[in-house]
Design goal:
Layout: H1 2-24, H2 60-71, H3 83-93, H4 98-121, H5 129-141, H6 143-166, H7 173-193, H8 195-198, H9 208-227, H10 230-251, H11 254-262, H12 264-279, H13 286-291, H14 293-297
Length: 299
């Protein structure tokens, strides 16, 4: 039953994500052109309108909206509560990309979100660093491409490990991981080589940064396989994907980006308070309440 709940949650998050991307792309239904001679045919959305903005890259489409947000607020006094605002503006004027500042500002928030999901809901995943890093990968490649690449990398690494065990090839841990990374590189290259055949533009934006982060997650997957079991590794893996998708939604939610830029002092203070409150929470998690519901109801 627990697995059904988690899978349903993944489906709901996926549906929310798909609707979220359509709205973010600015695509709205268009009315059919009228039959009058003077009617101007309505144009279908162009490819650029459907383009997904990559917040990890410095471009006019990613930086200019953030600059406009900064320009919408005038900051006069530096002290006592505006020093971070002034520092942000000075950094942007000096050439630091605004999108980089936004991502750094939002990292503590997604870490708090992951911690809250762990402490209150009960989803564990592979710690905090890897889900947070994977969410940034989703920002760079898009969740669909990111998940596809991740599943391919996990599949290739698992098959490689099974082949090594079947052939009874005994290797030390680091050389074995190096061999698995070799196989993963071949697998990713094979997917990229299929880009002309698949005609999927999302694969053209894959960077080495994304592949390295996914390889890090694969290393944890294999380590859990060796230390515990395949079922535990699979469970932690899809929990990590869930945490990463949730974090991705926070990273790409424009009102949060705007608030972090315009009110960084209060924003960071709020995140700090959330971390402290979460650290003092000792109650049962939601999944534990569901797991022990019969025992709780019998009391």
């Amino acid at each position: 039953m627990k697995n059904i709940i988690i899978v349903s949650f993944v489906v709901l998050v996926g549906l929310f994500f798909m609707s979220y991307e359509v709205v973010a792309a600015g695509v709205t239904p268009t009315l059919a052109a009228t039959s009058t001679p003077s009617a101007i045919p309505l144009q279908s959305p162009s490819v650029t309108a459907m383009e997904r903005l990559d917040l990890t890259k410095e471009s006019e489409k990613t930086v200019e909206p953030l600059r406009k947000i900064l320009d919408s607020q005038k900051v006069e006094n530096v002290l006592p509560f505006n020093f971070i605002k002034v520092a942000i503006r000075n950094s942007v004027d000096a050439g630091v990309p605004a999108n980089t500042l936004v991502l750094i500002l939002l990292l503590p928030l997604i870490a708090a979100v992951i911690a809250a999901t762990r402490q209150i809901v009960g989803l564990r995943g592979f710690g905090i660093f890897l889900p947070a890093s994977l969410s940034v990968v989703f920002v760079a490649t898009g969740p669909i491409v990111g998940i596809i690449l991740f599943l391919i990398i996990v599949f290739v690494s698992t098959v490689t490990r099974m082949i090594l065990r079947k052939l009874k090839i005994k290797l030390q841990y680091l050389p074995r991981m190096a061999l698995i990374l070799w196989a993963v590189s071949i697998g990713v290259l094979a997917v990229l080589f299929l880009t002309p055949v698949l005609h999927y533009s999302g694969l053209t934006n894959v960077s080495i940064f994304a592949v390295l982060i996914l390889a890090l997650l694969t290393e944890d997957f294999i380590r859990i396989q060796l230390g515990k079991s395949v079922n535990t590794a699979v469970k932690l893996t899809y929990e990590t994907i869930i945490l990463s998708i949730i974090s991705y939604l926070f990273l790409t939610y424009k009102p949060i980006q705007a608030y972090a830029l315009l009110h960084p002092e209060s924003y960071l203070l709020i995140v700090l308070v959330i971390d402290v409150v979460l650290g003092r929470y000792t109650g049962l998690r939601m999944l534990e309440l569901w797991r022990f519901r019969k025992l709780i109801n019998n009391k």
